[in-house]
Amino acid sequence: MTTGSRQRRIARTYLALSALDYFADFMLSVTALLLLQERGFGSAAIFAMIAAVWITEAVFEIPTGVIADMIGRRASVLLSLLLRAVGTGALFFSSRVEVAVAGMLLAAVGLTFWSGALEAWAVDESGAPGTGQLDRLFSLSRIAENAGLVSGTFAGAALGSVSLALPQLAAGLICVAGLGLAGLWMTEDRSAVAADQAGRLGARLWASTREVASGARHTLRGDRILVALIGVSAVLLALRGIPGVQWTVFFERSAGAGLFVVAVMRSASSLLEIPVLAWVLRRQHSGDHLRRRIIIVAAWSGAGCLTVAALAPSPAVSVLAYIAYSLALGVTMPGVRAAINERLTSRHRATALSVAALVNALMCGVGLVVVGARVNDLASVAHTWPIAAAGIVLAGGVMGALSGRARGTPAVPDLPGATPPAITPPAIVVAPGTAGRSASTVAEASHAASR
Fold it and tell me: In this predicted model, what pLDDT tens digit does every residue of 112-149 receive, in sequence order?
């Protein structure tokens, strides 16, 4: 097989699995919370469940990445699909609360085995991709993911109109189909892996934990602006999570048009975000201050739309306002990620981004537990959404001000005692676990970051 044909086969496999992955997850985006309510979960329990998913992602993200590097990315993808098939199926086949909880957490762990493994496989197995090939591959993967998102959302709404549990079963079956597809199409050359890795999983896990601790030390002690950027971005994500938990139930009741209205809402903001970001991208060259304006204007506009969505007497106006809110908050994310990356040095970039991902997940988890303890009805948003909007206004303003100070030389040099080099703004790097979706099928309903 020639190099070109091999790369095309790898690309097709990567795109197919990416689309399937999003299709399976987003089948549950409009029904997961409603099913939990049907199975007897109260509002506080649902908030706590989603918080547990975020915390599970934080705990397992780094260990599963190390495992994928050691046992192979193909094996990690297969294990992910197996765990997710069992986890999503558990809620369909059992009405017992403890089984449902175990299934959702198992699916969350499964997604951490997927996170990064498929992408790493595609890049490494392609050999040495030429200039622009990775950009093309990832652009095509984003298209495939969006196609899976939209089609999966509507498929889940259609099945959920018959039974809220059917999307769970279908998602599990899709993961089983993915097992067969990945098993047949994914091949992996492990000859380059060092032989002495065998039997040293514990040592590698400990070393990775120390790396993250080292990254945290450099982050927390070396650069106050970076600490503030990470903290404020985590606050933004946590505030996004509050309406993210409630919107499905609120609109399913208030709109009265069934699950398809919810499906349109979930898909519309993602589709609209593409041309808006393209428009923003074309104007990024007009000046360094544009990022600050985009973050502030988008965050404040989104907060206003969220308030309108909570208080509007007309369901149609509320739906449109929520779509606008989701779109606006999505537009802020590239600038936030770029601002954080510009305060990092190459030596500590990966570990510091892992720290940022852990802070995000923990902040979201703790925040949802606190809010959930005070929410008696998921459909009652008149107080929680305006409060979240006020927090977004404050956090967006602070983030915008900090992003203007992100450019320049970080406080921590690359090497101890070395003079910090001039920093060229790097390409945006996605922190583990924050790349466009949440860590589990249930957390899709409260997605606060983007995959």
Answer: 898 778 888 888 887 755 546 776 787 788 788 888 98
Q: Give me the DSSP letters along 215-249.
A: HHHHHHHH-HHHHHHHHHHHHHHHHHHHHHHHHHH
Token pair of 334 as six digits: 């590239």
CA distances from 273 to 118, 126, 234, 329, 435 (A): 25, 30, 21, 10, 15
For tokens 């558990």, the residue is: 90
Tell me 450's DSSP state.
B
Buried b vs exposed e over 394-405: b needs ≥16 C-beta within 10 Å? bbbebbbebbee
Would you say domain 3-186+206-446 falls under CATH 1.10.520.20?
no
Q: What is the pLDDT of residues 270-299, one digit of tens each?
A: 788 778 877 776 766 544 467 888 899 999
What is the torsional sign of CA 411, 413, 416, 417?
A: negative
For residue 435, what pLDDT band results from cuts at 50, 70 and 90? very low
